[in-house]
Design goal:
Elements lengths: L2 E10 L2 H12 L3 E5 L2 E4 L10 E6 L10 E5 L4 H14 L2 E2 L10 E4 L5 E4 L12 E8 L2 H12 L3 E4 L3 E4 L8 E6 L10 E7 L5 H11 L2 E2 L12 E5 L5 E5 L9
Parallel strand pairs: 1-4, 5-8, 9-12, 13-16
Antiparallel strand pairs: 1-13, 2-3, 3-4, 5-9, 6-7, 7-8, 10-11, 11-12, 14-15, 15-16
Length: 251
C-alpha cells in the first residue's frame, strides 16, 4: 500500500465562505488559501492528518450527499453547545428521514449535511470529527476497496456498518453505512488520495484499478489541474489521486 487519504473535498459555490464556516465550527486553522482551493486542517493535538479541502463546484448540489461528517461531543451539554454554535455560524436543521434520534442533523451554509452526535465511547479520542461517513449498498465490499486504497484496517464490522481507522489509532473513523435509498450521480463531498514522493504513480494507479477503481472523466474544475487524476471507487464515488508532495498542505 502506497496511497493514503489526504483530504475530504467539498465542492463549493463559495469555497472560502464554506471553509470559514468549517474552520470556525471545528476550531481548525486555514492552512491553504488559493483562488482554486482552500484547506482547513486539524491542529496536531487532534491527531487527524486529513484536511478538509474546498474547491470550486462544477455543478449544483442535487439531493442528499452520499458522504457526510459526524462531529463528536463530550457530553449532552457539549452536543447542545456544538449545535447552537453551528446554527449561529449559518447552519440549519434538515430532515433526511432520521426520525427520533439522539443525534442532530444539520446542513452547512451550502446545504452539505452533517451530524452532531451524542456522546459515544468509540469517539472519545477522535478529535472534533468523529467519522467520515459514506452511504453504500454494500459496506463490506466498499470498505474492502478503501482499506486497500488508504491502508487503514477494518476495525469494526456488523450488518449495517463497516468502519476503518488509521493503524495509529488516532483521528476520525471512515465508516461505510448501508443505505437502502443509495443515490447515484455526482456528490458535493468525496475523498482524495495521494501517493508518496518516491512511489511510481503509474503503478499506484494500476493497483487502485486492480482493487476496483475506474477512470472518470474530469469535471470542469479538474480539467485545468495537472496535479491529480480523476477516478471512481466500485460504487462510482468520485475521488482524485493527487500528485505526491512533501508538504501537501502547502502544495
Amino acid at each position: 500500500m502506497s496511497t493514503r487519504l489526504v483530504c475530504v473535498v467539498f465542492d463549493a459555490d463559495q469555497p472560502r465562505f464554506v471553509a470559514d464556516f468549517w474552520a470556525e465550527l471545528l476550531g481548525w486553522p486555514v492552512t491553504l488559501d488559493r483562488s482554486d482551493e482552500v484547506n482547513v486542517a486539524a491542529p496536531d493535538p487532534d491527531g487527524l492528518d486529513i484536511a478538509l479541502a474546498f474547491l470550486p463546484a462544477a455543478w449544483a448540489k442535487s439531493g442528499k450527499n452520499r458522504m457526510h461528517l459526524d462531529l463528536a461531543s463530550r457530553s449532552i451539554d457539549h452536543q447542545r453547545t456544538q449545535v447552537d454554535r453551528a446554527l449561529a455560524l449559518g447552519a440549519h436543521p434538515v430532515d433526511i428521514g432520521q426520525g427520533a434520534v439522539p443525534w442532530v442533523v444539520l446542513a452547512d451554509p451550502e446545504g452539505n449535511e452533517f451530524c452532531v452526535l451524542e456522546p459515544r465511547d468509540e469517539y472519545v479520542d477522535t478529535g472534533a470529527v468523529a467519522a467520515m461517513v459514506v452511504d453504500t449498498r454494500d459496506p463490506a465490499r466498499l470498505a474492502e476497496f478503501w482499506t486497500a486504497a488508504s491502508g487503514w484496517p477494518v476495525t469494526h464490522r456488523d450488518a449495517r456498518v463497516t468502519g476503518l481507522r488509521s493503524a495509529t489509532g488516532l483521528g476520525s473513523w471512515l465508516e461505510f453505512v448501508h443505505t437502502a435509498d443509495h443515490r447515484s450521480g455526482r456528490t458535493r463531498l468525496h475523498l482524495d488520495l495521494t501517493s508518496f514522493p518516491a512511489d511510481d504513480q503509474a503503478a499506484e494507479v494500476a493497483r487502485l484499478r486492480a482493487a476496483g477503481a475506474t477512470p472518470r472523466m474530469p469535471s470542469a474544475a479538474d480539467s485545468g489541474r495537472a496535479d491529480c487524476l480523476a477516478l471512481a471507487d466500485p460504487e462510482s464515488n468520485e475521488f482524485r489521486l493527487r500528485r505526491p508532495v512533501r508538504d501537501w498542505s502547502t502544495a
